[in-house]
Specification:
With about 575 residues, this protein is α+β, with helices and mostly antiparallel strands. The chain has 13 helices and 30 strands. The protein folds into two domains: about 260 residues, no CATH class; about 290 residues, Methylamine Dehydrogenase, Chain H (7 Propeller). It starts with a helix and ends with a strand.
Length: about 575
């Protein structure tokens, strides 16, 4: 690398921008023909030799250079092999797209214009047809996009492939977030979709309607890509599990090597999922699983346990696909949390440390050693600046997520601190303890300005689970045996609103759905999903796939699936609502 390249790399802390800088350096070393074709490929989720042929015909029509250009591209270190073609590494594509959408929009539009007909020529394969639809939108060829959409919707209805419809809308959302793309006429898209979804049950129709709502509002913005999203993920949420892998408008997908996206390959209609239907059983751990968390983009799950490991994996059926294994803990991993931007993970456990590390590479960035006992809970503040941790030393410690500097030590709990939860505005913390209470306190002054104690679990041995509602108005807390209830109460007055008593053993974990409409709570051998309507809550689903204690539960960001882990050493992903 020359000095200019090194200077550019030092000038940014953004991994995607660094990847783009390196890619541009490499492109400039290619032949003029290959470098231009490579830049055109950035807009595509994947490409093959036929696409490469088309992307150079308008530039070098008289020269037979296809093989040479294709070989140059697939030999690049940041180009990855997929079962059906090739794709840029996720960070590289993100960084280049961020550049080109501003500086070279015509290059991207022209590439999509050239590639779309080639993809559509093989449209019997649903995966390829979806890419054609995406490219027509990028190229602002509305009529062709709508015509193809109609064709694909007809096929999806015939095969009852409702997830495919979800996937098409995700591609549309992704394309229309680019500043140079004109949105498809919403009225036409809406009318086409209503023909197919008006008779569907709510659990299938609601995700589609939510995406239609997104498309109806152009003021919303969504990230084009994310540092955590592998290009190998680029087709399978669209192929087989859109609902598990989608967060907001992110349209990266989980890979399926079988290609159920090919409409004619599976004569059996896609079954309508029911509550509690298991989707994945992940068996990457050799000991009890104590903690699980979804990445904010929903493309990865992190889990930790008695084997001293944190596994980061993508929910690819039937067993998940391990992305990396973090090996730096010397004791059980009892708690973990993703940073709000999804770039880092904080994990704590019986080695009395909380370690902050890169979620892509596993490189340790800092180790916090402020506690004198085992750590049972870790929570990243919603503003991304601080981490709270608690454990056997009966303290909650709040510290800087970038430097590890201790900012606040709260000593209001008189027993082991089992669980902490931040308020959505990052100003307050609720901490549950073996002293049978939940303490609610302001972070800035460690409770000196505002604090109170919730005593609703006086019959429990401990309060092991606390979760602040997304709205900030309520707190849910779970009591251990013999009480075994989940209670919902006003976050700032402590007034009890709901007492849920359907569990028969202690409550180990609680999670709100991101819209605040549902709660998942785990106990011995079960997870219950319920609507927290006063006075007692209403059970919607009881999942019994995990054996013995279910120590941890986490809701997917789109609210459709739950991951649960426990003493049986597995993490299971299943249909929530």
């Amino acid at each position: 690398m020359d000095d200019i390249l090194l200077q550019e790399l030092r000038a940014t802390n953004d991994p995607a921008e660094k990847a783009a800088i390196v890619a541009e350096f490499v492109f400039n070393m290619l032949s003029n023909k290959a470098s231009l074709v490579a830049r055109r490929c950035v807009i595509l989720h994947w490409f093959d030799q036929f696409i490469i042929e088309e992307l150079q015909k308008d530039i070098f029509p008289a020269e037979n250079v296809t093989n040479n250009v294709y070989e140059q591209l697939i030999s690049l270190s940041f180009v990855e092999a997929l079962p059906w073609g090739w794709a840029f590494n996720h960070l590289t594509r993100e960084g280049l797209l961020n550049r080109y959408k501003i500086t070279q929009p015509n290059l991207l539009k022209n590439a999509a214009h050239l590639a779309a007909p080639v993809y559509e020529a093989s449209s019997e394969d649903g995966k390829i047809a979806a890419e054609a639809f995406y490219c027509y939108i990028i190229a602002n060829e509305d009529k062709l996009a709508l015509k193809l959409l109609d064709k694909l919707l007809n096929r999806a209805k015939k095969h009852r492939n409702w997830e495919y419809i979800n996937g098409l809308l995700l591609f549309q959302i992704e394309a229309q977030q680019l500043p140079f793309v004109h949105p498809l006429p919403f009225g036409e898209v809406h009318l086409k979709l209503q023909r197919y979804i008006h008779k569907l049950p709510d659990e299938l129709a609601n995700p589609i309607n939510k995406k239609l709502e997104t498309l109806s509002n152009r003021t919303r913005t969504y990230p084009i890509a994310h540092p955590r999203l592998s290009r190998r993920l680029a087709m399978a949420t669209l192929i087989s599990l859109v609902s598990v892998a989608v967060a907001g408008g992110s349209s990266w997908l989980i890979v399926s090597k079988q290609n159920p996206f090919a409409f004619g390959s599976n004569p059996t209609p896609t079954p309508i999922p029911v509550h509690g239907t298991r989707y994945i059983t992940y068996k990457g751990h050799t000991g009890r699983v104590y903690t699980v968390a979804w990445a904010p983009n929903a493309q990865y799950i992190a889990s930790g346990g008695a084997d001293h490991l944190v596994e980061v994996w993508s929910p690819i059926p039937p067993a998940g696909n391990t992305h990396l294994t973090y090996l730096q803990h010397s004791g059980s991993v009892n708690a973990l949390a993703w940073s709000p931007d999804g770039r880092r993970i904080a994990s704590g456990g019986d080695d009395k440390t909380v370690q902050v590390w890169d979620a892509t590479t596993g490189n340790n960035q800092l180790t916090y050693s402020g506690h004198t006992g085992n750590i049972h809970t870790v929570a990243w503040s919603p503003d991304g600046r601080r981490i709270a941790s608690g454990g056997d030393d009966k303290t909650v410690q709040v510290w800087d997520a970038n430097t590890g500097k201790t900012l606040v030590t709260y000593r209001g709990n008189t027993g082991i601190v089992w669980s902490v939860s931040w308020s959505p505005d990052s100003t307050h913390i609720a901490s549950g303890s073996a002293d049978k209470t939940v303490q609610v306190w302001d972070v800035a002054t460690a409770g000196k300005t505002f604090s109170y104690t919730y005593h609703g679990h006086s019959r429990a041995n401990a309060v092991k689970a606390v979760a602040w509602s997304p709205s900030g108005q309520y707190i849910a807390s779970g009591g251990d045996i013999p009480e075994s209830t989940v209670q919902i109460w006003n976050a700032f007055t402590g007034a009890t609103l709901v007492t849920y008593s359907e569990h028969t053993a202690g409550i180990y974990a609680i999670a709100w759905s991101l819209d605040g409409q549902y709660i998942a709570s785990s106990s011995w051998g079960e997870v219950r999903v319920w609507n927290p309507a006063p006075p007692a809550g209403k059970t919607l689903t009881t999942y019994t796939g995990n054996a013995n204690a279910v120590n941890t539960v986490a809701w997917s960001p789109d609210g459709t699936h739950i991951a649960s882990g426990g003493d049986d050493t597995t993490v299971q992903v299943w249909q929530a609502i």
